[in-house]
Amino acid sequence: MSTDTRTVTEFWVSSGHHMTRRVDGGGLAVTDEMLLAYLARPELVPPEEACPAERELHALLMKEPRRPVTAAMVAAIKDEDARENWQFMIGFRDRLLAHPSVEAAHLAIVRDGARGVPPLFLNQLVHLVMRNALDGCEDPFVLRAAELLFRPQKGSLKDGALLLADLELIEEFEAERKALLSTSPLAAMMGTDAMGEIEVMTDATAASYWSRSDAFSMALNLGGDPRSREALCRALETWIAHMLGVETAIAAVERIEDADWRWFVGLDAEATAIGNRLWRGEAIDAAEQSRICGLFRLDFRDPGAMDPKVAGKPVYLIMALTEDMILRVKPQNLIVGLPLAGRRAA
Predict the structure, then answer these.
(1) What is the rounded distance in angstroms from the CA atom of residue 185 to the CA atom of residue 182?
(2) Cβ–Cβ contacts within 10 Å for residue 326, how many?
(3) Residues with pLDDT less than 50, the chain
(4) What is the pLDDT of residue 176?
(5) SS (H, E, C) 59-105
(6) Exposure of 3 in the CB half-sphere (CA atoms within 13 A)
(7) Kind of pairing, strands 153-158 and 326-327?
(8) CA–centroid distance for 116 within its chain
(9) What is the dihedral of CA 177, 179, 182, 187, to 10 degrees?
(10) Pure H helices in 201-283
(11) Closest by alpha carbon to 153, among 228, 217, 196?
């Protein structure tokens, strides 16, 4: 009989991890509880003025969340916005149910170009998958860095270092500040900026992450703290290993030293555009260069997992902010962009 009495610290309850279960291979099953949670979203719960067709469809699925839904059932919904929401939801649900795990479904969705799947749903899947992949993780820095994979961030410079805070949280602060400005301009003027209201993760503050992981309320000192950059490397390695079954070693670097570099993956749309220009030998201006907030070298631990055309060469990962200092990491770029020797299943 096992005598292991260790307890695993809980985090990211909002991922819905508790509503699913592991299947053979380590992935997560698509459970009825998970589907019911989607049906409980405010976009899908029929309002008082909803037509009978919408009410009936919602009631049927609340009883049988896997029940087949025909195009005619959705077309019968009178409200155009509601009809569109249901089209997205049923299409998304059917794609989940077509695969043995959440991970396999996400892999298929991404490789199909994520057509018809709203970014919000993609981020929710990444949130859930990363909660599974990081189960048992004891390092709050890695967990906070992993938030970049499914939560857009707002960047800010403090003492020359780049801080990243949750974009949604920053927007909430700014909305409250605007409301205060309309009622009490003096109080609003004396207040601090939104980033100043958010605690930065340090060795001294990291322990508090566990009690507020679902609030996404800690800033990450990506530019001034090597531990934060190392934590992001570990999070990226975990995502790749879990989704593709490939072990990698990722490290932050200051610049690309190899004049004959062969491959890069942009971790976001801005970085992809900048990387493409560099790949073509085009110059990038100082403003574009200043928006690059992360440069990493990726090496495959098993050279046989790498496309022979680029064997022996590292892969560079580029991450960049938009002009308004927003970072939207797209982890799916690693799934479709790494030079693998063959397709990997989740």
Answers:
(1) 6
(2) 16
(3) 1-6, 344-346
(4) 81
(5) HHHHHCCCCCCCHHHHHCCCCHHHHHHHHHHHHHHHHHHCCCCHHHH
(6) 0
(7) antiparallel
(8) 18
(9) -40
(10) 226-244, 269-279
(11) 217
